[in-house]
Amino acid sequence: MIESQDYVLISALQHYAFCPRQCALIHIEQVWEENLYTLRGQRVHEKVNVPEHELIQGIRVERAMPLWSHKLGLTGIADVVEFLANDTPYPVEYKAGSKKAREADDIQLCAQALCLEEMLDRPVSRGAIFHYASRRRREVVFDEAVRSRVLETIDDLRGLLAQTTLPPPVTDNRCRNCSLVEACMPHTLNDFHKIVRRNNPFTVLNSFE
Length: 209
Fold this sequence. Notes:
single chain; 7-stranded mixed β-sheet; 7 strands; 209 residues; globular; alpha/beta; 39% helix
């Protein structure tokens, strides 16, 4: 059994899988900034942030459903869980962007499924990402590969949260739309690192902070 203080947020798994430095800024440094993309995400989630349920064409739909796994030490909230005709849960995660496969989103959704399996004692084999910009769903199959990635990410996240230093910046396409780019300073820090290395090639930088 995981101690209560060691539970990690399902959303933090998505942050870590997307960018460990972004995850550390949010969950260790408590840094958060808004930009166009985060505001769009908030708007998309307005409808599913209020706990409620309804019956739609014979399918029970639960919104803002609390989730947990005592075995894995996870906690969070599912945007939507649909209970199909045989009462099998089908998690649906809302994302603001257009339909595109993203491993970080699949890890987040699969983590929700693992919680549902433990909570409801029944298998959850698939779910979906609803991409608001294109108004389309992308179904995700929870095979052994994605389940293994979830477990790896949980371990990696716990390792990150136990540290006192931030991971180095990535400085790639992920930075373009990140709301934390000014707090992260990826280009500035990497330029500094290059200058130090050029002036003293034997210098080893252990931290970019």
